[in-house]
Structure formats: C-alpha cells, structure tokens
Amino acid sequence: MNKKVVVFAPHPDDESLGCGGTLLKHKSLGHEVHWCIFTDMSASDAYTQEQKKQRVNTVEQVAKLYGFDSVINLGFQPAGLDNVPMGQLLNALKDTLESIKPDTLYLPYAFDVHSDHKVVYQAIISVTKTFRAPYVSSIICYETLSETDYGLSPLNTQFQPNMYVDTSEYIEQKHQILKCYESEMQTHPFPRSFKAVEALEVLRGSQAFVDAAEAFVILRQRW
User: Largest Cα–Cα distance in the chain?
Assistant: First the structure.
C-alpha cells in the first residue's frame, strides 16, 4: 500500500526534531511524504531580510534532503497563531488536506508549551473529524525537544508514548538534516542540542529494545 503522509510543523525544524527518522523511513518504503509548515519568517517584522533569505534556503535544502513530495507553506506569523481566527486556519488546512487526501498525519502534541504547537494541534483535530476527512486513518503526535518536555502541568498531561518507530538505520541522515538548522541547534545543556537529540533517540530505543527510536502518541488508528 502506498501511504500518503503529511507532517505538520508549526515551525521548520519541528518535523525533524519530532519525527525526522520516521519520515526518512516512510520515504525508504516508497510512501508519499508531504511537509506542511504553518509559519513563515517573511510574515513577521521581527527578522532581518538576511534571516528570511536564509530560512528560505534552509527549507529548500531540508526538503531536498528528505525528498518530500511537496512543501506547503501556510505563511502565518511565527509565535502568533493564537491571534489568527480559527476559521482562517481551518480553511487553509482544508485546502491542504483536500489537495493531498493523506491517510497518515503527524502533528505536535496537544500539551506542548509553545502556543503555536497547541493551536496547530487543535486546528488539525478540528478539521480531521471522520465525517470531514474520511480518508485520514492515522493521526499521530510527535514529541519536540524543549516544547513537549517543558509542557509541565499538575494534571496528567505529560507525553506517554504508545507507539515506537525503529529509526536506527536513519540516525546519521537525520542528524545531517538537523545540521541545516544550525541557528536552532545549540550546545549542551541547551535542550535542542545534538547531545539531547541523541539521548532521546537512545532512551526511546531502549524502551523499544532497539538501538534508536522515535516515540509517538497515536490518537486515531483505523485498520
């Protein structure tokens, strides 16, 4: 079966931190993989023209390294999704989903600390009700370093995986892609460091009894 996969990234790099190895595995199996980015530096005055140009180059480079079948940039302002009317987000998502008709979706976790992640999660859940998007059979949340692990709450909302993907064969390739995001990756003990990425891969691998893995929470799975 030729799966159609869409990974939703509030910001470029979330896709690689959260499920980079898994996306590479999908591509190796011959699946279609599409990358939908919600925010764009060009929509904000908080970045220089040089930064905006560099981000465009980075997105193009990352897309090429993954071999994505398409890149959809919704173009909203970073760190401002909670100010966008939900109807506007839903319309943009509907158009994206209808153009691809994917069966598998990867999205950020509901209780990530970043407001953009929370909004993306809620918008996707709203637009993928079974009677609205019957072609979607799998909805899966990934974890993002410095967002998922910092979503502290006295309630039991912490990330508790119920699915693991053996990514042992794709670790080096994933790390090479992450090097494209050098401005986001800093040195240990910063949570988005290569040491932290590797530590999480090893931890999830040990839980799944493989060398390295990525962990997920399945929200919907229809067989």
Answer: 47
Give the separation between CA 50 and CA 128, rounded to whole angstroms. Answer: 37
Residue 50 main-chain phi, psi, to 5 deg: -65, -45
Do residues 97 and 5 touch, judged by C-beta distance below 8 A? Answer: no
The pLDDT of residue 2 is: 87
Q: How many angstroms separate the CA atoms of 18 and 190, rounded?
A: 17
Cβ within 8 Å of residue 35, ≥6 positions away:
6, 7, 9, 15, 63, 66, 68, 70, 71, 72
- The whole domain housing 177 covers 4-221
- C-alpha of 206 from chain center: 23
Residue ranges, the chain, pLDDT below 70? 1
pLDDT value, residue 219: 98
- CATH, residue 52: 3.40.50.10320
CB 28 within 8 A of CB 63: no
**Can you read off the two tokens belonging to residue 79?**
């760190």
Which pLDDT tens digit goes with each residue over 153-183? Answer: 898 899 999 999 999 999 999 999 999 998 8
Instruction: Please check whether residue 59 is in contact with residue 41, taking contact to mean a CB–CB distance below 8 angstroms.
Output: no
| 117, 38 Cβ separation under 8 angstroms | no
Q: Residue 120 corresponds to which amino acid?
A: V
Compute CA 120 distance to the chain's CA centroid, rounded to the nearest angstrom: 10
Q: What is the pLDDT of residue 121?
A: 98
**What is the total count of domains within the chain?**
1
Backbone φ and ψ of 86, nearest 5°? -60, -35
What's the DSSP call for residue 147?
T
Output the pLDDT for position 218: 98
